[in-house]
Structure formats: C-alpha cells, structure tokens
C-alpha cells in the first residue's frame, strides 16, 4: 500500500471534510509505562492548517499522546508503544527513521518556558546550528523572520544579545515558539503552553496560534476548555488513556455525543 | 509522491553526507564515554589486583593468622618477625578515640546547623565547616605535633606528648567536618511533616529532636559515623606525625603507637623492593583496604535502605 | 517545667559542639597564621633552600606542588567529566550504573596511602616511570577522580531536564545537546569541583611519598620524569628529618601557612561560584 492510497483511505473514515489534508495520522496507539497502560487504542487525525485541541483531566494521557508524535517518549526508559503514526503518510516510528529528523519536522513547545541559558539570538539560531547550517546571513535572516512570526520582534529587536532568561514568562514562551519556527517545522505541538502564564500573555499566545495556523498543522494540549474552544477547530477528549470523543470543536462543546464528554464539558467532574 | 513532497517540504536539507557523519559521531562519543566511565572500576580492580599480587608472597613465609595476630613487628631483625597485631590494635585505638571526639562534635554541630542556627548563621557556619574539611591532613599532623602535643603534655603531665591520645584528638578534629556534613544532610532529609506532627501533640523542640528527628535520621547519622571511622582508620600523615610510632602493643591510651598506615608510610621508603618487608607492607595495605571496603559497603547499604525508608529515590 | 530544662541543657550542649568545632578551625588558623607569617617573605617564596634546610626558601616545593596538582587535574578532569556524562546523560542499563557507582564510592573511601602503594607498584615499577612527577600526578589523579565525578554529576543534575528536551525537540542529537546546552550550563558546577579537588590534591602527602617526592633537590624539575619537592612532603620531612629542629620547624610553619592559604583561597572561590550560581535558573 503506498502512501497515497493510505491518505485516500484516511479521508474516507475521517470525521473531516474531503478538502482537508491529513498531516498526522495516529493508528491503534497503545502505550505502556512499564506494565501500566497509559493509552488505549487511540485513532486520531491531525489536519493541515487546523488547530487540534486535546482536552481532558490531568493524568489522562494527553501529554503522553502528543509526545509520541515527535518521538519524545523514547527519552523515557521502560516504555512500550504499539500502533502506527504517519506523517504525510510516512511511518515515523520505524527503526530506520531518524528521530532527529522527525523532531525537526514536528516542533514542540513545552508547558514551562524553557529557553536555553544563552542570549536571545543564540536561542533561535541553535536549531539551525545543530542542523548543520553555517551561513551567517542565512541564520540572521531566519532569526529575524522567526521572531517576527512569533510576534516578539518588536519587543526584543534592540537586545538580541541579552540573556533570554531576563525575558518575562510570556516573552520566554514566545521565544520558545520562535525557536521552533526557525527550523521550519511542518507541525507544531503545544503541550499546555499557557499553564504557567498570566491571562494577558495567554491571550497573546492564543492569538499567535491562530495566526500560525495559516502555515502549520497545530496540536495543542490544554486543561483549559475555554482555551480549546477559542483556538481549536477540532477537539479530542481524553479520559483515563482513552480517546472518548473526537469531533469538530463546535460539536464537542455544543452537542457532545458521549455522556462522559458532556459531563466533563459542563464541569461535572475533572 | 507524498513522501517526496514531504522531503521537499522540509526546508532544512542537511548536506548529504552529514546525516551519516552525525550518526557515526554519536556512536563514537557514546562508546568513548562508556569506556571512560569504567575508569573508576578499572582503578579499583587494579588496586585490588596490585595489593593481592604484592601481598601474597609474604603469606608463603608467614601464615596469615600469625601475620595478623602475631605480637611482634620486627621487620628488620634477623630473623625478622612479621606480626601486625600491635599495628592493628594501634589503628583501632586511635580510630575509636577519634570517634569519641568526632561523633559528639560532628553530630552536635549538625544538629546545631539544622535546628538552632538562623539562616544567617548557617550561611557563615556551613562554609567554615567545609573549610575545616578541606584543610590537608599534613597541616593537622603538624598542628597536632607542634601545638596539641606539647599542650597536652603540660596539661596532663604526660611522659610523652606524641601518643595515641593526641593522635585520637587530632584525628577526631579532622573527621568532625566529614561526620558533620553527612549527618547534616541526613537531618535535612527528614520531612517537615514529622516535626509538625510532633509539635502538634505538644512536644517542645528538644523532645521533637530526640524522639522524632534523630530516630528518623538515625541511619543517615550512622552512615556518617561509619564513614568518619573509615576516614580515621585510613588516615596516614596525621597519625604518622602525631601517634609516636612505637610498634608495640599499647598498654595505655597515653603510650606512643604505630597504626597500620603510618607503618606503611614510614617503612616503605626503607624496605628494599621485593623483600619480605616490602611484601609485608603491601599485606598491611591489603588488610587496611579490606577494612575500609567493608566499612564503605556497610555505609552504602545503610544509606540505600534509609533512602527507601524515607521514600527518596535512590 | 522539666522538659524545658532538658531543652535548655540539650541546646546548650549542641551549641557547645558547634562552638568547639569552629574554635578548632580558628585555633589552627591562628597558630599557623601567627607563626607562619613571620617566616614568609619574598625570599622564602622565591628561593631554594640553603644550609641543609635551615635557611633560604621553599620555591622548588611550591613549584613541585603546582606541577603535581596540574598533572593530577589534567588526568582526572576529562575522565571524571566523561564518567559523569555517561552516568547522567546516557542512562544505560541500571546494573552497569550501579556497578560504576559502587566502584566510585569505594574508590573514594580507599585510604590515601594505598594510592601511594598502587602508584609505586604500577606507575613507578610496572610502567617504569620511576619516582617522578608523572607517577605522582597519576596517583593523585586517581585519588581525586571520585571528587570530580561527584561534583560533575551534581552539576549535570542541576541542569533542568526541560533544556535537554527543548534541544532534542529541535532535532539536535544527544551529543549536540550535551556539548552545546548541558555542558555549558553545568560548567560553573564542574569548575567548583575542580577547584575543590585542587585544594585536596595540593595537600595530599601519602600518595606522593613513594611516587614523586624528594626531600631535597638542587634545582627545579626538568621534565615530567624528574623527582620533585612538594610542600606537604617538605613539611613532613622538615619535622622528621634533619639536625636543626628549631629552624626547620619555623620553615615548616611557613609551608603550612602557604598550604592553608591555598586551600582557603580555593574554598572561597568555590563558595563564591556556588552562591552566584544558585540564582541562575528560572525563578
């Protein structure tokens, strides 16, 4: 089966409309920490130029799930994963696939802003450097471009050589986004990006996500349902390692099919 | 086709052979670190091999039991006598004496740092203790020789200042910071909730300390004591300078003695390489090594158990 | 109340312990400082000994100690850091880690004189380096290896895990992450370890007794295969050999003061670096 037919097949059993392009396809995912099962039989599609939100109470496996997409789960010893994950139809879990390449194509922003203890410029150029790019002009151009895209350029353009640790929390998080953008990924994973930010910074990040949607497929994990409602096009609800429901965001929030989803949305538990 | 598109979509193509180079480099570094990481093990095994190899010849001439329990150490007589019991006894006396000094001082200081000292006091006192720990043993030996020994001799009307007692005191001072900092660590691991529970039932600070905190930190403190003992028994320069150096079975605490370490340090220079004396000194070192090895293993076992007990990760 | 009296007595006792401990530190510094300072002069620091050790300076011993210390650090630093990197970053199978950890702990507990014997048997005899700077440095290096490993490990542990994640998530390889992110962030901590180990090595005597040290040499060492004078051994020799105890003791005071100053200086730098580093990472 070649990748194209795979994608065709995807479209058929997908909840989305025909015109959307499946960027990442997760198929029959089961994941274990030691012997404890963290994810059960999960099937989910991430579409290009759409924001997919993953919600659920803490400990439901939502962060674990998106970490599979760029193979960050491999950093944790003693785990087992079965199932397939396709990026543009290419199986990314295969042994001959270089995780570094996958991680370059799928960027990730973490819960807590984690800029490197370097200056702002170096933080962003780092991703280029480790990927073997030495051309200084190119790097400089890309740094500026990324900072502009992450809506941070105006705030830092005069102090590119200051330590990144002196930025505020929200600025640091946007710096981390810019850092991802610099390597030109195709997908952006956000793992509760606003968990440690104030409301104003949160809003800026959300606006940024809506802006970035034009160029990237975006997955965002959040425990904040309003946030999911505000930024996402599709929403998946996770509970105890299972994907309970996955649909267009409006449907999930207005007319959920599953009782458990409704209970969670209406705040009856969680 | 889609695969192709994906490749083009990745706007960061690495130079074609870079991919392979990076992989080779990664593997190379991993191997390098793995090999270098085994250095400690290799040195430890090397030490064991060397000690056994150089010590064994003496046991062909003297039975192991006679060597350990023999009462006379006359390695240069004709015929020589290789009985290291006086040396072992000296080591034990001096170390036990040192423990009598450093356990109360070290644990007491740790309790002070942990229970009484304010933040400001702690910020001054802890570095002071660390400095005391970093003073070289030769300086302690010198201090014991020129300051403590004459002082004690006058004070206690001793026939000779350089004796087991002075050596114990010097070693004790020296081991105090070791005991103090390990015990302090152990005390700081005791969860706050233990204390709060005790205060909540009306115990005062001292009762809490004696009945709750010290038992909870007990195995940590015993680790500290064992490691202090291990350090005292293996210490060389201090006892070499202060203990007096007589290789006879001590009759009192105020007799000069020759612990195992100082016998090695003092005599190795004169023992012809490959002679019985030479091998005998290596045999002493072997016994010394085994003693400290046992101490360390016990300390390790206790501290591991203790960490599990308090729910700290290994 | 009785329990309050018990508390008073108990607290007085532990205060007394703390006081005594600190008192000893100041006693050592006072006695050695006050008598050592009288001997120390420019000549003392820059001249070779004269008149059978009763006059002149101790410059060759200072130089020898510097060589030995430098040699030991050059040997132990790469090994120690590499070992710490392996244990911390490459998280291999746990039984291997346990074996290595156990051997590090035990190596740290080996009596210093045993390192001297090991050096004598292996470096001096077996490899034929003779009594030399090289043999002494190697013996000292092995002695100080556990110190450097544990300091480096602590420093690596203090680097937030999220930095490694961020780097790997950008497509960096493990080694790139270690070299460009982890090691630079851990550098101050590793430096502290090195500085403390310098203090330790400079004062060690037993390992160099039979591997490197000479009581008296005419000039300075010419190569790494020469014998050297070293400060700590010089103190020992001054106190136990020779025919002029009075003058020799005075010189020994001076040597002790130099060693003490070196150690205090190193500790001060280490404490300074550590305190500056505390406020380094987020919040």
How large, in whole angstroms, is the Cα Rg of chain A? Answer: 19 Å
Straight-line distance between termini of chain A: 42 Å
Mean pLDDT of chain A: 86
Looking at how many chains there are and whether they match, the oligomeric state comes to heterotrimer
Features:
heterotrimer, A: 270 residues, alpha/beta, Rossmann fold, six-stranded mixed sheet, four-stranded antiparallel sheet, 25% strand, B: 314 residues, mainly alpha, MetI-like fold, 14 helices, globular, disordered N terminus
Question: What does this molecule look like?
Answer:
The complex is a heterotrimer of chains A (270), B (314) and C (283). Chain A has a single domain (3-265), classed as P-loop containing nucleotide triphosphate hydrolases (Rossmann fold). Chain A has eleven helices and ten strands. Chain A has helices at residues 3-12, 62-69, 99-105, 120-130, 136-149, 153-156, 169-182, 199-212, 225-231, 249-254, 259-265; strands spanning 22-33, 36-47, 51-55, 79-87, 90-91, 106-109, 187-191, 217-221, 234-239, 242-248. Chain B has 314 residues and is an all-alpha fold. Chain B has one domain (67-309): MetI-like (MetI-like fold), CATH 1.10.3720. A two-stranded antiparallel ribbon of chain B has the order 1-2. Chain C has 283 residues and is mainly alpha-helical. Chain C has two domains: 1-39; 42-278, MetI-like (MetI-like fold, Orthogonal Bundle). Helix content of chain C is 77%, strand content 1%. Chain C has a two-stranded antiparallel sheet with strand order 1-2. In chain C, helix 3 (59-89) packs antiparallel against helix 8 (174-203), helix 4 (94-109) packs across helix 6 and helix 10 packs antiparallel against helix 11. In chain C, 53% of the residues are buried. Chains in contact: A-B, A-C, B-C. The A-B interface holds A 3-4, 7, 87-90, 98, 100-101, 104-105, 128, 131-133, 183-184, 186 and B 1-3, 5-6, 9-12, 14-15, 18-19, 22-23.
């Amino acid at each position: 089966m070649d990748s194209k037919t795979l994608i065709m097949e995807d479209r058929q059993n997908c909840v989305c409309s025909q015109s959307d392009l499946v960027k990442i396809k997760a198929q029959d995912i089961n994941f274990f920490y030691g012997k404890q099962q963290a994810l059960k039989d999960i099937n989910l599609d991430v579409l290009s130029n759409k924001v997919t939100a993953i919600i659920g109470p803490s400990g439901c496996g939502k962060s674990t799930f998106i970490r599979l997409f760029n193979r960050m789960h491999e950093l944790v010893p003693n785990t087992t994963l079965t199932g397939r994950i396709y990026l543009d139809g290419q199986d990314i879990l295969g042994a001959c696939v270089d995780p570094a390449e996958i991680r370059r194509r799928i960027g990730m922003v973490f819960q807590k802003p984690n800029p490197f203890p370097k200056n702002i410029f170096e933080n962003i150029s780092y991703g280029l450097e480790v990927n073997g790019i030495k051309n200084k002009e190119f790097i400089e151009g890309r740094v500026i471009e990324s900072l502009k895209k992450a809506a941070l350029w105006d705030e830092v353009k005069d102090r590119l050589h200051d330590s990144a640790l002196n930025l505020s929390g929200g600025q640091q998080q946007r710096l981390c986004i810019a850092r991802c953008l610099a390597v030109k990924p195709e997908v952006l994973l956000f793992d509760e990006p606003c968990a440690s930010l104030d409301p104003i910074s949160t809003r800026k990040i959300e606006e940024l996500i809506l802006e970035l949607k034009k160029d990237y497929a975006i997955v965002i994990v959040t425990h904040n349902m309003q946030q999911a409602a505000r930024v996402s096009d599709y929403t998946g609800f996770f509970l105890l390692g299972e994907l309970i429901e996955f649909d267009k965001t409006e449907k999930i929030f207005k007319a959920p099919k599953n009782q458990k989803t409704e209970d969670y949305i209406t705040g009856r538990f969680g | 086709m889609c695969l192709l598109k994906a490749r083009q979509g990745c706007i960061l193509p690495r130079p074609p052979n870079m991919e392979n180079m990076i992989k080779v480099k990664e593997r190379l570094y991993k191997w390098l670190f793995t090999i270098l990481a085994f250095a400690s093990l290799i040195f430890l095994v090397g030490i064991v091999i060397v000690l056994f190899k150089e010590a064994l010849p003496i046991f062909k001439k003297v039975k192991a039991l006679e060597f350990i329990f023999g009462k006379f150490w006359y390695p240069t007589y004709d015929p020589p006598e290789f009985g290291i019991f006086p040396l072992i006894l000296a080591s034990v006396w001096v170390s036990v004496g040192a423990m009598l000094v450093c356990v109360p001082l070290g644990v007491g200081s740790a309790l002070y740092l942990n229970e009484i000292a304010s933040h400001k006091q702690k910020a001054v006192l802890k570095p002071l203790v660390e400095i005391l720990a970093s003073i070289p043993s030769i300086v302690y030996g010198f201090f014991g020789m020129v300051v403590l020994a004459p002082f004690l001799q006058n004070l206690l009307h001793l026939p000779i200042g350089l004796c087991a007692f002075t050596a114990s005191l010097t070693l004790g001072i020296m081991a105090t910071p070791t005991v103090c900092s390990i015990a302090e660590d152990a005390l700081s691991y005791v969860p706050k909730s233990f204390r709060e529970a005790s205060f909540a039932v009306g115990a005062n600070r001292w009762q809490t300390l004696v009945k709750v905190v010290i038992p909870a930190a007990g195995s940590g403190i015993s680790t500290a004591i064992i490691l202090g003992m291990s350090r005292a028994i293996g210490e060389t320069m201090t006892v070499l300078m202060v203990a007096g150096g007589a290789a006879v079975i001590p009759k009192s605490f105020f007799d000069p003695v020759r612990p195992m370490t100082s016998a090695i340090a003092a005599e190795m220079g004169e023992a012809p390489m490959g002679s019985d004396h030479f091998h005998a000194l290596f045999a002493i070192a072997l016994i010394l090594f085994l003693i400290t090895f046992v101490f360390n293993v016990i300390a390790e076992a206790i501290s591991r158990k203790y960490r599990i007990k308090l729910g700290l990760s290994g | 109340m009785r329990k309050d009296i018990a508390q008073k007595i108990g607290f007085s006792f532990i205060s007394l312990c703390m006081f005594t401990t600190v008192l000893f530190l100041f006693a050592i510094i006072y006695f050695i400082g006050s008598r050592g300072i009288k001997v120390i002069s420019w000549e003392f620091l820059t001249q070779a000994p004269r008149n059978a050790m009763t006059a002149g300076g101790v410059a060759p011993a200072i130089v020898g100690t510097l060589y030995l210390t430098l040699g030991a650090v050059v040997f132990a630093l790469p090994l120690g850091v590499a070992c710490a990197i392996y244990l911390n970053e490459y998280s291999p199978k746990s039984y291997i880690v346990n074996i290595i950890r156990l051997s590090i702990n035990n190596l740290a507990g080996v009596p210093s004189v045993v390192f001297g014997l090991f050096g004598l048997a292996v470096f001096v005899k077996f490899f034929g380096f003779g009594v030399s700077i090289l043999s002494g440095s190697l013996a000292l290096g092995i002695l100080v290896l556990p110190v450097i490993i544990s300091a480096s490990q602590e420093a690596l542990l203090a680097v937030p895990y999220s930095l490694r994640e961020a780097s790997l998530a950008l497509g960096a390889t493990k080694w790139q992450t270690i070299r460009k992110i982890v090691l630079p962030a851990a550098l101050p901590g590793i430096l502290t370890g090195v500085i403390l180990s310098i203090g330790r090595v400079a004062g060690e005597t037993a390992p160099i007794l039979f591997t490197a040290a000479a009581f008296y040499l005419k000039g300075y060492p010419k190569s790494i295969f020469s014998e050297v004078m070293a400060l700590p051994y010089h103190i020992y020799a001054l106190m136990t050999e020779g025919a002029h105890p009075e003058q020799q003791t005075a010189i020994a005071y001076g040597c002790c003061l130099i060693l003490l100053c070196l150690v205090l200086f190193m500790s001060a730098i280490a404490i300074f670096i550590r305190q500056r580093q505390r406020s380094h990472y987020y919040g």
